[in-house]
Amino acid sequence: MTTEAPAAAPAAPAPHRWWILAVIGIAQLMVVLDATIVNIALPSAQQDLGFSDGDRQWVVTAYALAFGSLLLLGGRIADLFGRRITFLVGLVGFAGASALGGAAGSFEVLIAARALQGVFGALLAPAALSLLTTTFTDAKERARAFGVYGAIAGAGGAIGLLLGGVLTEYLDWRWTMYVNLLFAVVAFVGGAMLLQRTARDRTATLDIPGTVLVSTGLFAIVYGFSNAESHDWSDVATWGCLAAGGVLVAAFAWWQARAAHPLLPLRVLLDRNRGASFLSVLISGVGMFGVFLFLTYYLQASLAYTPIETGLAFLPMVAALMITATLSTSVLVARFGPRPVVSLGMGVSAAGLVWLTGLDLASDYAAHVMPVLVVTGLGMGLVIAPAMSLAVAGVAAEDAGVASAAVNTMQQIGGSIGTALLNTLAASAATDYLADKDPRDPAVLAQAALESYATAYWWSAGFFAAGLVVAVVLYRRGRVAEDPAGAPVVHM
User: Fold this and answer.
1) Potential cystine with 37: which of 70, 160, 170, 192 (Cβ 3.0-4.6 Å)?
2) What is the mean pLDDT of residues 39-63?
3) How many CB atoms lie within 10 A of CB 305?
4) Domain containing 253: what range?
5) Number of folded domains that form the chain
C-alpha cells in the first residue's frame, strides 16, 4: 500500500537562511560537544570537588540520561508550541545549567547541572534540526545545509575533546561549562533576530501515556548500559533496567499505533529509506566511540600526549569527515542514491577501525595514527550526513520536530551503548591478558591496555560491518525522489 499526503505549494525560501544555518550549527555544536568536553576535565574536577572514581562516570552519564530519555518529548514540544520559541528556551536553559555547573561547589550540584543541561538539550537539539528541515525548502540547498549539519554532528565529539583540553590546561575545568554561555548568547541573538515565528497547532494535544512510556523506557535503557560500566552484566541493576526499558519501548510502539495524537507517528518510521537512516545513525553512534573514546585513552595513556595534543591529533579526522559529509549530501547521494554512498561509508569506517588494531607503543603519529584517522573520518562523513538528512526527508511539517528528535535519540542511545559496551569488553580483554602475567610490570600493563583498545576497535568495526549490511538491504535502489512540498510518502 502506498499512502501520499496531499501535495502543497513549495514554501518560499527563508530569507537569511544561510545565517540561520550558522545559528543552528552553533547551537548543535554546543549540544554535541558537551557529551565529550568534560571528559578531559574530569580529573581536575574530581580533585577540586573531591568525589570518588566510582562517582566520576555520573558527570557524563547524568547528561546522557536526561538528554536521551527526553528527546522525543522535546521534539513533540517543538511541533506543538513552535520551533522558534522551543529553540530559544532551550538555549537559555542550557546556558543557565552550564553557569550552574561552572559555579558548582559540590559534586551534587555539578550532577544536577549536567542533568539540567540534558533536559534543555533535549528541547534544543530536535528544534534545531527541524528548523533546518523547514528553513531549507530547495532540495540542493537542503543537501548542502545537511552536509554542514552532519559534519558538525559527527565532528562535535572530537572538537569537544580539543576544546576541553585547551580550557582545562590553560584556564580551569569550570570553563568547560562556562564556554557554553558564549555559544548560547551568539545563537540566541541570531535566533531571535533571524528565525520566523511559527504558529502553534492548538488542535493537537500531547500524548501523555506515550511520553511516559518512551521517556521511562529510554531512561532505563541508558541507565542500564551506564551501569554496565561499574556493575557486572549479570547484576540486576544492569540487565533488569535493560529488560524493563525494552518492555516499555515495545509498549510505546504498541500505543503509538492506537493513540489519537501519537508522540511519534508511525508514518515517520515506515518509509524504508528513513528506517535505514535511523538504524545507520544508531550503528554509527555505537561505532564512533571506538575511535573517540579509546583512541583518546591510547594517545594520552600509551603515547603520553597532553590533552591539547590529543585534541589536535583528531583534527585531520574532523577535516576528512567534514569534506565527505558535505560532498555526500550535495553531490554523491543526489547522483547515486543513498545505498552505495552509506554502504561505502560503513565499509571504509570498518576498515579504518580494523587498521587501528595495529597501533602499538612504537607507533608514530604522522606515519601510523594520522592516516587511519583520515580514512576513518572519510568513512564516517559518508554515513552521518546522508543518514541524518534522509531520516527527516519528506516528513510533514507538523512531524519535523519529532522526526528530528528520533534521529538525535538514535545517535544518543547509540553513543550510550557504545560507551558502556565497549568499556566493558575492553576491561575484560585487559583482565584476560593479565591473568597469567605480573600486573606490577609496567610493560605488561602497557600491553594489556593495547589489548583492551584493540578489542574495542574490533567490536566497533563489527558494528560498522553490520551497518554495511543494513545499508545494502534496507536502502532503496537509485536516487531519492525529492518532494519540494515536503509531503511524506509512506511505502508499505
Assistant:
1) 160
2) 75
3) 19
4) 211-262
5) 2
Instruction: For residue range 322-356, list pLDDT tens digits in order.
Output: 888 888 877 888 888 888 899 999 999 999 999 99
228 and 110 housed in the same domain: no
Q: Which of 220, 237, 262 is the last residue of a domain?
A: 262
The reply to whether 9 falls in a domain is: no
Collapsed DSSP state (helix, strand, coil) of residue 233: coil
3-class DSSP state for residue 453?
Answer: helix
Rounded to the nearest 5 degrees, what angle is found at the Cα of 353, between the Cα atoms of 347 and 358?
135
Q: What is the CATH number of the domain that holds 25?
A: 1.20.1250.20
Which residues, in sequence order, are CB contacts of 415 under 8 Å at separation 6+? 35, 64, 285, 286, 288, 289
DSSP symbols for 179-196 = HHHHHHHHHHHHHHHHPP
Q: What is the DSSP letter of 11?
A: P
Does 269 share its domain with 251? no
75 assigned to some structural domain: yes
pLDDT exceeds cutoff 80 at 1: no
- What torsion, rounded to 10 degrees, do the Cα atoms 394, 146, 411, 258 define? -10
Which residues are CB-neighbours of 360 under 8 A, at least 6 positions away?
450
